[in-house]
Amino acid sequence: xxxxxxxxxxxxxxxxxxxxxxxxxxxxxxxxxxxxxxxxxxxxxxxxxxxxxxxxxxxxxxxxxxxxxxxxxxxxxxxxxxxxxxxxxxxxxxxxxxxxxxxxxxxxxxxxxxxxxxxxxxxxxxxxxxxxxxxxxxxxxxxxxxxxxxxxxxxxxxxxxxxxxxxxxxxxxxxxxxxxxxxxxxxxxxxxxxxxxxxxxxxxxxxxxxxxxxxxxxxxxxxxxxxxxxxxxxxxxxxxxxxxxxxxxxxxxxxxxxxxxxxxxxxxxxxxxxxxxxxxxxxxxxxxxxxxxxxxxxxxxxxxxxxxxxxxxxxxxxxxxxxxxxxxxxxxxxxxxxxxxxxxxxxxxxxxxxxxxxxxxxxxxxxxxxxxxxxxxxxxxxxxxxxxxxxxxxxxxxxxxxxxxxxxxxxxxxxxxxxxxxxxxxxx
Length: 428
Known about the structure:
The chain is an alpha/beta fold and about 425 residues long. It has 3 domains: about 20-150, no CATH class; about 175-325, P-loop containing nucleotide triphosphate hydrolases (Rossmann fold, 3-Layer(aba) Sandwich), CATH 3.40.50; about 330-420, Helicase, Ruva Protein, domain 3 (Orthogonal Bundle). Helix content is about 40%, strand content about 20%. It is built from 15 helices and 14 strands. Strands 1, 2, 3, 4, 5, 6 and 7 form a 7-stranded antiparallel β-sheet that branches. A 7-stranded mixed β-sheet has the order 9-8-11-12-13-10-14, sandwiched between helices. A hairpin with a 2-residue loop joins β2 and β3.
């Protein structure tokens, strides 16, 4: 958490404590503790969980994963940073102060969270123990427990806010069965066949690249794979928030953390924008993907909407991205499968009619067809979607689809957009 008083675009006039100042403060406040360890957790899979450890609100004690904690009196302010939510099960975003932590086997240590000299909370902590194994177990067990509370999977994000992913798939994957099986086999082989990689003297690193127009299942497949990797193999999950502030050192830190916590999955969405919208260079990225120091135990899942903008050095040479799959707009049979699932209450004849008429639609458009039909039904006071609702929604989306193909440019015959044009649009 970066504490810039909630405005990341404005510098704050005063930063927090340096590590030296923090250590001096703790020695004054707790002279009975002889050892203080600066525990740097940034990029670790439990970093987000430690920020949430004390929960929401102003509780003075609690228990997570068998570790009991209580607030310790100190001159440093006690504070929980909490972003308002509608879900009461969500936890606080960060906390500062000193806790006493005690494990089930009698382990005891103090944990200090503070605003550091870079204006960050939760990137490092101070602990009164030098037992690094204890701290590592503590962090991982807390992360696992908090993820299970909401049945969510934690993601560590470089350059952005960590998040958690719902542990179950949103719905079925409407792709060719052979394609799904091929992609899943790559994942299972990577995590299960470690001995095979060693016997063949192969690096244990794989890169899978998904290309194609937006809305055709790339992101759904990535989510499906990371859920599968986490559920079946306990994989740690990492991602990258692409921005102007990201450079090669950041990317190196991401891959290093993923390798250290391996087996891991690293997700690079919108691969084409990485070199365009960050400080990462082509040579730097090539070195990370296929250099003399490749990261072992890491599977990379990358996506791009614009494969023509991907350098052939990435997309056409195995060992950088070993396999590439194209996600096309669904053909007729896949549209039928999706519409059978979405409109099971309609007749076979009508579903076939919708499938025939929706040629060129992406899965995102087909999903919107389902949503729009449901909205029309609700507005008409119907509890279930009728054939009339589905056909009306198809007509509306067909207009939008056609306009999108033109870049949503107005027909020159209709003149400039204005009040009359808007009124006409409302009447369609």
